[in-house]
Specification:
The strands form two sheets. Strands 1, 2, 3, 4, 5, 15, 16, 17 and 18 form a nine-stranded mixed beta sheet that branches. Strands 6, 7, 8, 9, 10, 11, 12, 13 and 14 form a nine-stranded parallel beta sheet that branches. The protein contains 14 helices and 18 strands. The protein has a domain of about 325 residues: TIM Barrel. Helix content is about 30%, strand content about 20%. The relative contact order is 0.18. The longest helix is centred in the middle third of the chain and has 18 residues. It binds dihydropyrimidine-2,4(1H,3H)-dione (DUC) and zinc ion (2 copies). The site of dihydropyrimidine-2,4(1H,3H)-dione has 10 residues, from loops.
Length: about 475
Amino acid sequence: MTQFDLIIQGGTIATASDIFKADVGIVGGRIVQIGENLVENAQAGDVQIIDASGRYVLPGGIDSHVHISQPSGEGIVMADDFESGTRSALFGGNTMIMPFCLQEKNGPMRAALNAYHELAEGNCYTDVSFHLIVSDPTDTLLSQELPALAADGYASFKVFMTYEGLRLNDAEILKTLDVARSTGATVMVHCENEEAIRFLIARHEVAGDVAPRAHASTRPVAVEREATHRALTLAEIVDVPIVIVHVSNGEAMDEIARARARGIKVVGETCPQYLMLTADDLDGMDWEGAKFVCSPPPRDKAAQEECWRGIETGLFDLFSSDHCPFRYDDERGKRTPKGLESFRHIPNGIPGVETRLPILFSEGVMKGRIDLPRFVALSATNHAKTYGLYPEKGTIAIGADADIAIWDPSVTRTIRHADLHDGADYSPYEGIEITGWPTTVILGGRVMISDGKLVGKKGDGAYRSARARGAKSV
Ligand code: DUC
Ligand code: ZN
Ligand code: ZN
């Protein structure tokens, strides 16, 4: 007989492969038993019991693409720090997020990482792990820092093909991919052709076309398709797996499918904005379109359907929020004075860490587009597998961390920013009707949200290191 700390009783469990009814027994923050009648067979004692009948017991969400407290240019401040960002994530059914640590130009990555750890330390409501944004691939970074960091569990790098001061050229991307190949790290790529964007921006500004809508017209599908093809080709040349992040349309998806057919290992990611928003949302009055400025931009209804097809068929492995929050009514956010003069200065990114999973559950599972195992794969399991956290994270199995979200499919809610918990002042998904919400969230065996109420504490979440590909779990 086992003395459990916590038993989740009578729920329907889903993993990325199965759905079954069983109880979950937890000891010391881990799942130790999955079976029938655990309460009846448990050793008497001080055990907490959660009745999950009528609800789904799912792995806590892992959002592997989130921006928190990231330096975003002069006079611009991100709306979330680790406290508000992880709190919001938790309310959205997540038990782990993976934000980005940005290397300063001419700066060592370690220094940026130490500063980032300091921001997170003691402030998190979920577990966190970090990706490293490579902005300055010096010889020292490539030959010494990144290999050492990958060995220390910082095993995913992000590179940008766009943005002044951030983008890498092809030679630099090749070198970074090569480090990933030798260290087993994973490279995430933001695919947009910077030269083409600059050309289009200049053309729009000359024509006086400077409102937020021009953000979408200067970053058309072709810009993303070309860069996606190029990134995949560079990975093919180096012979290393690659993650194509925030894919927004069918043409970029076709590039991924063709690359896979050539034998390239590609992980594809899409996000809620490409299922729920279109470029028309950038048309808002009084600069309100700025609320929807993100890159790549939302496309059209046909592209939304293509992205749904990728979700349904398995072309996409990851569904992430790309939460990158700026306040709207704020001169340090979307209404920065320079941004009011031209769309190209509007901070890029939208909030969504809390609404990612409710949107996928409601629009995907409840509307019959995907089943629960696919929801689990897209929301947690594949993130853990891609970034070296599986099987401790991302599944419900004996020995796994007891990171669990209990979903009530009968709850209906309308998304209102006033009800969310991030630091922004709007939601791009305001007014969308949702069916199903995570009502109880458990992190490492500790109940953090109970029937919709926060009962966990800041600091209950902690940094978790990942493993490079091929490294063994200890
Ligand atoms: N890319 C991201 O991944 N997030 C926000 C902004 C961007 O361009
Ligand atoms: Zn990006
Ligand atoms: Zn992002």
